[in-house]
Structure formats: structure tokens, C-alpha cells
Amino acid sequence: MNALNGKVAIVTGASSGIGHATAKLFAREGAKVIVAARRLKELKALVDHIVTAGGEAVALAGDVSDERFAQALVALATERYGGLDVAFNNAGVLGEMAPLPELSREAWAHTIDTNLTSAFLGAKYQIPAMVARGGGSVIFTSSFIGHTVGFPGMAAYAASKAGMVALAQVIAVEFGTQGIRANALLPGGTDTPAGETVMNTPEARSFIESLFALKRIAMPDEIAKAALFLASDASSFVTGTALLADGGVSINRT
């Protein structure tokens, strides 16, 4: 039996990378998937892929930091598929990278809004829909950066991702008695378009890979499998956690 049979799931940041891989995996595992991102063309191609493979999916394009979009995603899940069981709040940006004194307020606000405020807005509408179904799983894509490691020039990114861990903890205790589980997934470096902006030369990629205990970065499908664990009943007693799927970068010293 598939892990998400009968479940309805929202996946944001689904046009590429981890979100794209996770949407396909959730669909293969039986979920009806609402895929979200800014780029409608890429979302439509993803839906076509899922439907051709025998799954069910619908796309909605928009800005995750817009409260009306967060509300519309949940409304679409409810109207099209009858409710909501899983939300993978994955959309995010690296944002401007600069030493803290050189970071503009506007750049700070953009990163916080896109990463952390969008997580808050998503959960604000996802939780009541899940409570109406008797429970559900809220997942945030956080990062080991800001949790176990600090990288120069990434203050806004680290702060936004660390905030997601705290947000998951509070949701877990506020709504645990109503069947809601909330967790933060903390990937390590992953082979995605966003990752390529940092690993933009062979030397940079080699250096970053050397930081990991596994001496490589992740493929998006590997992180998607961790998201599936948190989405499914396999993690039925897991809530309020910061789940590292980071290839050992947090503990490596060699």
C-alpha cells in the first residue's frame, strides 16, 4: 500500500528542486497534490508528468508571501479534493548574501518574508483545514544553516530558517491534541538550481562537498524521501522536531 493513499497534500516551491521531486514522490505514493510556485509553465509541466504517470495534481501559481495566495491554496485543496492532510511548505530563497553590516533592510525583509513569513501564512490556513479532517502533517523546509552551522554572509537566510524550527515546535504543542504534527526538515546541500548559485564553479562545489561526512551533496529525491517520512504515518509519533537530512555536514570535522 502506498504511504499517502487518500491524502491531499500541498507542496510549495514545486517548480524545481526539492519541491518538484517531492510533489512527484507524493503523487506516486497516492496523494492528490496541489503544486505551487511562481512559475506557471513549470507547474503545468509537473502536473502533466504526474497525471501521465497515473497520479492526481493541480497547479496554482503565486507568491507564498502573499496571504491571499496561502488562503487560495487551501481553498483549492478543499474544493477540488475535499480537504487537506499534508502541507510541505518548501518555497524559499537564499536571498542577498553579504556581511551583516552591509545587508540592506530591504534584502533582510525579502528573505524573511519569502522564507519565514510564508511558512507562518501557510500554516495559518493549513492547520484549520487539517483539524477539520481530524489531523495532518505540517512540514517546513528549514536548513542546517542557522541550526548547527553558521556561514558568513547568510544572516537573513539563517535567521529565517532557524525561525521555522521554532514555529514547528509551537504548532506541535498548540495542536498536538487535535491530531496535527509539525516538523522542520533540514536538508544539507542539494543539487538544485538554488544550490548552483552557491556551487557555481567546480572548485566551489568540491569545497562544499568536502564539508559533508558523505563527501557529496544530496540529490533532490533523497530529500523528498525524508519529506515523505514526515508526511506519512511512518512518523506518527514524530512532532516538533528538526529532522536533519544533511549528509553529516553538521557533525563532520574531517
Topology:
Elements (H helix, E strand, L loop, with lengths): L7 E5 L4 H12 L3 E6 L2 H13 L3 E6 L5 H15 L4 E4 L15 H28 L3 E6 L13 H21 L4 E8 L5 H6 L3 H9 L9 H12 L10 E4 L9
Helix pairs in contact: 1-8, 3-4, 4-5
What is the typical, i.e. mean, pLDDT?
96
Largest sheet: 7 strands, parallel
Give the total of domains.
Answer: 1
Large-scale geometry: globular
Low-confidence stretches: none
How many β-strands, per DSSP?
Answer: 7
Number of helices: 8
Please estimate the helix content.
Answer: 40-55%
N/C terminus separation: 41 Å
What is the fourth-level CATH superfamily? Answer: NAD(P)-binding Rossmann-like Domain
Beta fraction: 15-25%
Task: Please give the CATH architecture.
Answer: 3-Layer(aba) Sandwich
Structural class: alpha/beta
- Please state the CA-atom Rg, rounded to the nearest Å: 17 Å
- CATH class division: Alpha Beta
Q: How are the strands ordered across the major sheet?
A: 3-2-1-4-5-6-7
- For this structure, the CATH topology is Rossmann fold
Order of helices and strands: EHEHEHEHEHEHHHE
